[in-house]
Amino acid sequence: MEYNEATQAACWVILPNLGGLAGLYIIKTRHDDVIRRCQLVRHFPGSTGQVVLWMAFNSAMGYAAYLVFRSGGGLEGPARPPLAVFAAGLGYNWAWPPFFYAKQKFAMAMVDMNMLCGTVALLAYLYFPINERAAKIMLPCMAWTLAMATFNCRVWRWSRRRPSE
């Protein structure tokens, strides 16, 4: 079965968001509770803002991967290594909400987010020779993951200082 380019692009954009939607289901109402307890609401977008920003990040990552897939000869061409790194990045991306919100393992979530930051930077580097536009799309993604890593670090530091509950 042949798929047209628009269908392929849509699949690449939707794929990263599937894990995000599963993460929303896993964390359920814990998100707002964690943010409220950390007293960081004024420093970071609320739950709706975070969902929108994560969806934009996931969609941008997926579209950049699609551009590399298309320009780099699919999984058989030079796009194969960057797309493998993209798959690893999806794992880090999808693992973060359960670590942070559901289990409240802030140190583990911080390690995961830092791995995602490194993966996004590596993707920009690997994408550049294959598709310059895809590499440029990763720059706002790098900014978002750095902001999330900073947020995660603040929460982790806060959680180490709070009395045991």
Automatic annotation (TrEMBL):
Gene Ontology biological-process entries: tetrapyrrole metabolic process
Family to which the UniProt record says this protein belongs: Belongs to the TspO/BZRP family.
InterPro entries attached to this UniProt entry: TspO/MBR-related_sf, TspO_MBR
Protein name as it appears in the record: Benzodiazapine receptor
Keywords of the record: Membrane, Receptor, Transmembrane, Transmembrane helix
TM region(s), chain numbering: 6-27, 48-69, 109-128
GO cellular component, one term: mitochondrial outer membrane
Main localization category: membrane
Source organism: Rhipicephalus appendiculatus (Brown ear tick)
Location(s), subcellular: Membrane
Superkingdom, taxonomy of origin: Eukaryota
Membrane topology, from the record: Multi-pass membrane protein
